[in-house]
Design goal:
By secondary structure, the protein is an alpha/beta fold. It has helices at 10-17, 20-28, 64-78, 95-102, 119-125, 141-152, 162-167, 200-218, 230-243; strands at residues 2-7, 32-37, 50-51, 61-62, 82-92, 106-111, 128-131, 185-186, 189-190. It binds adenine (ADE). Adenine (ADE) binds next to strand 5.
Length: 248
């Protein structure tokens, strides 16, 4: 997976991606990150890439030409690819979308700043508009990083353990079950006995039950899509009856 990022702050992208699991994935060649500074494509003495908005109003708008020249340079060198514009106006990012993007060989992210980007260049180059949630950030870099991190861990070879990407939160439409490690007792709290039993059937049942309970407690909205057995539906309903039917 090759990520290309059009940005005014390439060091923000490079620094964040260079650490932890993504950093290791870059070193091993599973992913690459090419952060390209839009300012390098400005054509004026002061390297300005923004200007006042037509019609007036607060803030500045990123100009079309430097963004377009930056895009052309990327596709000339690496071939064309989907261009994802990070924007609160986009479709809200999800694990499902991450799965779909993980199948691409190249992805180009366009990070806006100021009050926005000239609509004409967006019309020409953007294929997907994506938001990471209903709140407004100062720029598209953090959303691009959130997306790249989520997508990268789905790329084969990035996680040591292929099972973990599958069994984690959202993979089956449910939240993840709680985890424990040594010591067996901490602050008077014991690790649930089933985890020490070595009984794989009981363990699998317990994991699933805990996932259902967490989901019904914290994200009941997810249950509509999750496939629950009759017993699991009962468990969820019992919880809701005991705790009030909030959220469903
Ligand atoms: N740019 C500013 N806010 C954003 C958001 N919530 N998602 C994606 N891009 C953004």
């Amino acid at each position: 997976m090759n990520f290309h990022v059009m940005t005014l702050f390439p060091e923000m992208i490079e620094n964040a991606m260079a650490v932890s699991i993504t950093g290791r994935a870059i070193k091993s060649g599973c992913i690459s990150v090419n952060a390209v500074n839009i300012r390098d494509y400005a054509q004026n003495k002061h390297n300005r890439v923004d200007d006042y908005p037509y019609g007036g109003g607060a803030g500045m708008v990123m100009q079309a030409e430097p963004v377009y020249r930056c895009y052309e340079d990327i596709i000339e060198k690496h071939g064309s690819a989907r261009v994802i514009c990070l924007s609160p106006q986009g479709r809200v990012f999800s694990q499902e979308m991450a799965q779909e993007y993980a199948g691409e060989e190249n992805l180009i992210f366009l990070c806006g700043h100021y009050e926005g980007i000239d609509e004409r260049v967006l019309e020409e180059i953007v294929t997907d508009y994506v938001s990471i949630g209903d709140y407004v950030l100062t720029g598209g870099e953090l959303p691009a990083l959130v997306m790249m991190d989520t997508i990268a861990r789905l790329v084969p070879g990035v996680l040591n353990n292929a099972v973990s990407a599958q069994t984690e939160s959202f993979a089956e439409g449910l939240l993840e079950y709680p985890q424990y490690t040594r010591p067996e007792e901490w602050h008077g709290k014991k690790v649930p006995a089933v985890l020490l039993s070595g009984n794989h059937k009981l363990l699998a049942e317990w994991y699933r039950e805990q996932s259902v309970l967490r989901t019904v407690k914290n994200r009941p909205d997810l249950l509509q899509k999750a496939k629950l057995t009759e017993k699991e539906c009962q468990l969820a309903e019992e919880f809701l009856q005991k705790n009030g039917n909030r959220g469903l």
